């Protein structure tokens, strides 16, 4: 009976197009049954201390949650399915809710949820999971679906670190409504047949702001670049990216994740956390089990083996354009720990890579990495910068000689062109502003 119900939902979803340019896209929202419980089972939270847990807060949220869920189903045509591994408890709640006139929800055993989503992996963009247990995290990751973590429930290790954290029911519902509509990037640039660059935000100076809200966003972004106390803003950009990513098929086939190292050979912690969250939610592991004493920068796909001068210090814009990728090639290589996986992906024609960076000015860093990856035979490359300064992209093609997994390769420029065909969509700024409002920034 349950499969027939949800299969009908699948048929409805099957005829809907993937959202484009902000088009509406309904979701099936799988919620852990704990969101409905009046009392949590300590056996389900063996690794969490429930002694000081505030049940009164949980119960208040429960009442609001049920009401808002009905509105979400009735007003926005989303489907909500509660799941648990305990069939008896599920049946009990389903009976109680039906007797109370709540017939809008589905109740499924966890295994049925797993089976259903596995049979519809090509529809994972329609699925959202809501829960606070590590089991919820792994369920979402295995299905490559988005996880929303309600922080009024006890958080386990994985969910305390990853997923979309919401502290109120209102945030939860508003974010789901954002998921229904969001699929806009501030900028898209097609660099060559296999390479595309996306930027999430306008990083230009405050004088370019059109209003007070946009001015504040640009100021926050500048703080982010300086690694000031800007965790909250980087979190907003992450949520913006995840919302758009889950409404698109563009990122479904990505196998490798990396980021541009800082000039001092370290990694920007905000960008690293951004990249790691995306990688984990896409269900991709690092190529080897690194021990805890390995530095984070040494697990990155790209290694800065030698410090380089910061591009904006002591050099004019024109000098940086002429310099091109030289500084990057002289200090950057591909992490040899990834060699075996890259060779396997090449044979399978799945050598698809995404590279993150904090911002893009002239594109020298991205362009250097593009040449290194294309030299290795990449099938698809996506660059994502958190911000864009709107300078023309300096596309320089190089012939590379030697081993790009070491610092001994050499390079020679072959061709130069300038790209300025950015596809700009200012509606993305409004989407970021909406998220700032939802999460009280």
Overall geometry comes to elongated
Rg (C-alpha, Å): 23 Å
What is the tally of beta strands? Answer: 16
Instruction: Return the structural class.
Output: alpha/beta
- What amount of the residues lies in strands? 15-25%
Count of helical stretches: 15
Unreliable residue stretches = 11-23
Looking across the biggest beta sheet, what order are the strands in? 3-2-1-4-5-6
Helix share of residues? Answer: 25-40%
- Biggest β-sheet: count, sense, barrel? 6 strands, parallel
N-to-C CA distance: 45 Å
Q: Please, what is the average pLDDT? A: 85
Concise description?
The protein is 40% helix and 20% strand. The chain has 441 residues and is α/β, with parallel strands linked by helices.
Your description of this structure?
The chain has 441 residues and is α/β, with parallel strands linked by helices. The protein is built from 15 helices and 16 strands. It has a 6-stranded parallel sheet with strand order 3-2-1-4-5-6, with helices on both faces. A 6-stranded mixed sheet has the order 9-12-13-8-7-16, with helices on both faces. Helix 2 packs parallel to helix 7 (169-181) and helix 9 (231-246) crosses helix 15 (427-438). The protein is elongated, with a radius of gyration of 23 Å. Mean pLDDT is 85; it is low at 11-23.
């Amino acid at each position: 009976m349950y499969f027939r119900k949800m299969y009908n939902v699948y048929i409805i979803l099957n005829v809907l197009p993937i959202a484009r340019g902000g088009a509406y896209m309904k979701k099936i929202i799988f919620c852990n049954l704990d969101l409905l419980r009046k009392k949590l089972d300590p056996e389900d939270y063996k690794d969490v201390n429930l002694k000081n847990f505030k049940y009164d807060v949980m119960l208040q949220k429960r009442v609001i949650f049920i009401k808002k869920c009905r509105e979400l189903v009735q007003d926005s045509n989303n489907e909500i399915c509660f799941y648990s591994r305990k069939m008896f408890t599920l049946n009990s709640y389903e009976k109680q809710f039906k007797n109370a006139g709540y017939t809008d929800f589905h109740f499924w055993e966890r295994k049925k949820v797993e089976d259903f989503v596995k049979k519809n992996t090509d529809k994972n963009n329609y699925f959202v999971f809501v829960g606070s247990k590590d089991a919820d995290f792994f369920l979402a990751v295995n299905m490559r679906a988005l996880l929303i973590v309600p922080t009024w429930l006890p958080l386990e290790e994985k969910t305390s670190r990853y997923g979309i954290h919401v502290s109120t029911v209102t945030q939860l519902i508003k974010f789901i409504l954002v998921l229904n509509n969001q699929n806009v990037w501030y900028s898209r640039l097609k660099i060559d047949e296999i390479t595309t660059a996306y930027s999430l935000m306008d990083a230009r100076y405050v004088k370019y702001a059109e209003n007070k809200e946009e001015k504040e966003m640009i100021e926050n972004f500048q703080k982010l670049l300086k690694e000031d106390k800007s965790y909250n803003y980087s979190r907003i950009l992450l949520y913006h990216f995840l919302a758009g990513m889950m409404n698109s098929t563009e990122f479904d086939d990505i196998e490798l994740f990396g980021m541009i190292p800082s000039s001092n050979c370290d990694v920007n912690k905000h960008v690293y956390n951004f990249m790691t969250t995306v990688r984990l939610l896409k269900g991709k592991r690092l190529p080897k089990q690194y021990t805890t004493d390995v530095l984070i920068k040494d697990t990155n796909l790209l290694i800065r083996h030698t410090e380089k001068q910061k591009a904006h210090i002591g050099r004019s814009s024109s000098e940086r354009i002429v310099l091109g990728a030289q500084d990057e090639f002289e200090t950057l290589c591909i992490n040899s720990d990834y060699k075996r996986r890259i060779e396997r992906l090449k044979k399978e024609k799945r050598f698809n890579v995404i590279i993150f960076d904090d911002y893009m000015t002239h594109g020298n860093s991205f362009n250097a990495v593009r040449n290194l990856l294309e030299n290795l035979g990449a099938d698809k490359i996506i660059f994502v910068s958190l911000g864009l300064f709107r300078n023309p992209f300096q596309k320089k093609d190089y012939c590379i000689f030697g081993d790009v997994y070491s610092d001994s390769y050499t390079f020679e420029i072959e061709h130069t062109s300038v790209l300025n065909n950015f596809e700009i969509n200012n509606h993305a700024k409004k989407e970021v502003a909406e998220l700032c409002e939802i999460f009280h920034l």
